[in-house]
Amino acid sequence: MPDIRTWQLATGAAVLGLVLAAGAVTAAGPWESGRRTAELDRAAEARTEPGGGHRRPAGPAPAPSAPPVLTALGTAPAPATAGRGEAAGNPARELARRLEPLLRDRGLGPRPGVSVVDLTTGRELYGRDADRTMIPASTVKIATAAAALSALGPYHRIPTTVSATPDARTLTLVGGGDATLDRAGLRTLARRTAGDLRARKVTAVTLGYDTSAYRGPDLHPIGVNGNIARVTPLMVDQGRTDPGSTGAADRVADPAGDAARVFRELLEKEGIAVGGDTAPGRPAAGSKPLTEVLSPPLADVVEQMLTRSDNDIAESLARQTAIARHEEPSFAGAGRAVQQQLAVLKVPLAGARFADGSGLDRAGRVTPRLLTALLTRAAEPAHPGLRPVLTGLPVGGFTGTLESRHTGTAPGSGLIRAKTGTLTGVNALSGTVPSPDGTLLGFAFLANETRSPTEAQPALDRLTAALTS
């Protein structure tokens, strides 16, 4: 029933419309692989545009707040107290009545933590162990995204650079931390490099590669597996052995060396002879940047990371935050930087620990109230640059990690937008949903010590669906 699905998704987009000007809402769909087609086009265009990493792309800036957008669309929510009786006069009591029976579900473990807020005011409408620190799993990506956007801005782009000696015969491929770099981007870089070399009458070079942008161990505590590669500032296709794969996939042992190998092959296809070994190291003395390719704007990168729950991008964004804050770009330094940057946003950080950017490390801790505070900041008129935290959340029944949940005629289909979190014994969901009177709610449901995701995920979905009814 495509007409119903399209209507549901359009309704959800209109209610959420926190970043989109009224005209942009119509042009925003459809969604493809977790990102709007228009955003995919912008990302592809960003690959071919030269320029600085902070250059602002063409197009409308984020809208300042939700109410003017909703008014322009003719969908402005009614006041929360209009004609709703006791439910409107005491929403906390109504939420407690709806949620507490569902929170007794054994699938949620012994003590789930909950926070539900009104995103237009930031007022918490319901809380249960909302200040208890818990393992967040991938819901910590909300914090990673907010920190990176706050530190760098939504238009920041991450460069991958080729440096050359004055005679242009010794090249170094310099990784800047772009975890979205694919073979198409690397091919563009090779073509530009070959063009510059031919202009200088250079047809033979040596090539090295530089990963010094990051420090410390590059191996995540869980090790290399299908969910994450070694954390390095230089990689292509996220180190996947099958470049066209998505989701969990086998990874190469040395993503940086593999990217340099691919770049060497691409240079040779452009008619540039590459001699000697391709080895790691800093650019040779006197080297200067020759050419570069840039990542998509950070807003697009954040949306991709959240929608797909991309661990490689999440770790990259945490380290970019560390670089921006002059912290060591390592796991430890990135954790400090994220905490420092979130403190600037004045959100409750008591007990929080950011062990990594992705949430794969079980040593990480957040509270439900911290997650809803971050969603509130992302909705505020004072923080338009944080809107991708909201627009990147998967849409129930449609995109990313919620594509197979809240499907069909389920109450939350097309309306619930939330970041999932799943580890062994940990299940979580945090995002936004419109209530029946049009109020946009932010929620965080964290469940630790769960028995299985097949029990926990439906229980979480029933909680979020209850917010729509």
From TrEMBL:
GO terms for biological process: peptidoglycan metabolic process; proteolysis. This is D-alanyl-D-alanine carboxypeptidase/D-alanyl-D-alanine-endopeptidase. GO terms for molecular function: serine-type carboxypeptidase activity. Belongs to the peptidase S13 family. Keywords: Carboxypeptidase, Hydrolase, Protease. Residues 33-92, 273-292 are annotated as: Disordered. Coiled coil: none annotated. Pfam families: Peptidase_S13. Residues 33-48 have a biased composition (Basic and acidic residues). Residues 68-92 have a biased composition (Low complexity).
